[in-house]
Amino acid sequence: MDELDTPVLDDHLHLDPRRGRGMAAVEDFVRAGGTHLLVVNKPSWHLGVEADAGVDFRSVFEETLAAVEGANELLPGRAWPVLGVHPGLITRLTDERGMEPSEARELMCEGLDAAAGYVRDGRALALKSGRPHYDVSEAIWDASNDVLRHALDRGAALDCPVQLHTEASEDLIEIAEWAEARGLAREKVVKHYAGGRLAGPTPSVISRREELARAAERGEPFLMETDFIDDPDRPGAVLGPKTVPRRVGWLLEEGYDEAVRNAHVETPRRVYGIDTVGTLTGQRA
Question: What pLDDT digit, counting tens, does each position of 143-178 carry?
């Protein structure tokens, strides 16, 4: 195990104890020096759920909560769940199930409402939404933006962060403005799988050295993630669970101490209201 004298948070990864590595991935994270996790539910269809109503997403959310409970038994810090509806679902609903974009939009909004209930009850930390990162028709794009704005509405009502899966971009100011118009601070909108430079939301930077160096040099609030998908057919994708702790070690070696504190103490407190220092028990696997 690598000793890192700092909390180490992976802001976005998936755990699938039923089909994937599950708690073995958490153990790898801890042995590498990791302390805290934000666990995002896998896309519903990856867990065999073909939803017809918002309540159908609850089994996906409950499976994620169970994974978080298991992780909390292993982490020297703790894990929190992030729940929502993957924006790629709209293509599955329209292309494979023959729904109109408006029907798909309504179902996805119902799923977000179900996720919001977990936040309201204190069982989840944040919501997950977004829009496709691939080319789609204008009707699908418009419906997807409606879903995204619905997530921002729910985030504003609950005063909770919203993680977004979107197209690659260094300028998402418009989305930040949508959030602010609804009463949600732009800092509470998090762009998952971000590069090291981003205008608008808070970037959750994919933990590749070149992107992390850009974020560190920029000096603005940022987070670090792997987007580990815990899929037995794609081991290690996108990045493995050891990556964030190892990149933290690299950042410290490169003299980016302030950037590490930014990403793992200050920005988590600023965005999510979590205390990564105070939740450390000092016990590591």
Answer: 999 999 999 999 999 999 999 999 999 999 999 999
Q: How far is CA 66 from the centre of its chain?
A: 17
**How far, rounded to the nearest angstrom, does the alpha carbon of residue 105 sit from its chain's CA centroid?**
21
Burial status of residue 216 (CB atoms within 10 A of its CB: 0-12, 13-18, 19 or more): buried
Q: What is the pLDDT of residues 106-137, one digit of tens each?
A: 999 999 999 999 999 999 999 999 999 999 99
Q: Which residues contact 130 (CB under 8 A, 6 or more apart)?
A: 86, 87, 144, 148, 163, 164, 165, 166, 192
Buried b (16+ CB within 10 A) or exposed e, 43-56: bbbbbebebeebeb
36: left (phi over 0), alpha (psi -120 to 50) or beta: beta
- DSSP 8-state code for residue 199: B
Say if residue 284's pLDDT is above 70: no
Cα gap 58→84, rounded to integer Å? 10
pLDDT band of 235, cuts 50, 70, 90: confident
List, in order of start, the domains of the chain with CATH numbers: 9-272 (3.20.20.140)
DSSP lists the bridge partners of residue 205 as 194, 224
